[in-house]
Amino acid sequence: MRFLAVHPSPLMYTKIYLRLEPLGLELLGAAARNAGHDVRLIDLQVENHKDYLRLISEWKPDAVGFSVNYLANIPEVIDLVKETRRILGNALLFAGGHSASFVAGDMLRHAGGTMDCVLRGEGEASVVSLLEAWSEGPGMISRVPGVVTSQGEGPPPRFIENLDDIQPARDLLRHRRKYFIGVLDPCSSIEFARGCPWDCSFCSAWTFYGRSYRTRSPQRILEDLERIREPGIFIVDDVAFVQEKHGYEIGEAVLKKGIRKEYYLETRGDVLLRNKDLFRFWKKLGMKYMFLGVEAIDAEGLALHRKRISLGKNFEALEFARSLGITVAINLIADPSWERERFESIRQWCLEIPEIVNISVNTPYPGTESWRTESRSLQTRDYRLFDIQHAVLPTKMPLEEFYGELVKTQQILNKKHLGWQALKGTANIVARHLMHGQTNFLRMLWKFNSVYNPALQLADHARPVRYEMSLPPPVEEHLHPVTLYVHEGKGRRGRELSDTVEAFVNETRMGNPSEEL
Length: 517
Description:
Radius of gyration: 22 Å
Oligomer: single chain
Number of strands: 17
Strand content: 5-15%
Shape: globular
Distance between the termini: 40 Å
Structural class: alpha/beta
């Protein structure tokens, strides 16, 4: 069967700071190809709709699967499905991915019969079963684990049995040198572990995986690294190096093989402080950049997002990261209730520290705890605005003024780390990139003003809305987290953590530590 995997277009944030290879689709494609299917992949982050329509018209795939990891991409995907149905007629058309797993029914409703199903959960675990069932007859797909059709749901989603079973089919990408994150240009992505054992209210990583945490073996990770030609590596784990022993095993294997790469990773401040020696070790191996999810610089903000780590620990983690001599980026979440004084205090703090500070907007997403507990009413049901750069909850200031203050605060990043200021500090890096024909990072430096504009953000709210998302259910004060899960939670059995790390996680997560989730 000819199978085409499709990644949708970039979002507002990714138009500047990063463009990551679609690792999930490379894993999905590998699973299908290993089963004997003819697989292709198109990434609309670097290609366009005309390229896509030309490909399906000429190649005529038997099945097309769309990745929907981001809610804001749903309208684009629905429109592509409808156009694809017109061209391909009887092909299997389906969607999957993180966000699609939480809004499967809505997507089928919007598609109006043009989409055959949504595949919830880990796609590489069920895509082969889906393709085989379709070949037996369209009515057979309802038996596939994770499938949702307009007639109902099939069996529950299943996990891939072992993360070592599949290596990403990186050769499916036609434009590998288009992917970057910051100065890592070009940059590839790799997975060391999957899932998150914490339970932050604004995040759906842990609800998708049922609070599980699974690891790849160092041997398979090393095999994957040896196949990667790009000098930069983004470690996609939601929280890097939760399990210290696993991090050392990977690092020692990398050291023994003499692999030299530059790494970018994301982690928590408390994990960084707990495993200082491990992060020092990875600094020697090439760790150059780190993203820390600080989220707030006051106790009130941390409580809002259910992060038990204290302010003191967050600031201590920043100090330690600085001591490593690496570039650190942090994220702060701006709440729509903020007023001018709050934005001004944040701006002053951002100016005083050397870190790169990203400002996102507090946004309740389907699949998150805040989606079910947020008492403020949504001001829009336009999927396109659910991109953490628009306000979807009521703002205390007039919306136009809120965006003005938000962009004014984000401008601190532009002034400190982009444009000529950044070029002065990265001239050698840029020259090296240009010598190798890499211009992604250089182009990024001057894109800020064309993307972040209060007038444009305000105008986005006035666009006609063709697809409206369903409202969240009535607010639940005592929500049981397992009701949010896509994959069935296995409790302690689902987390590949030592007992001491499990105890540490329970001490630092906001849920009841004695509650088995």
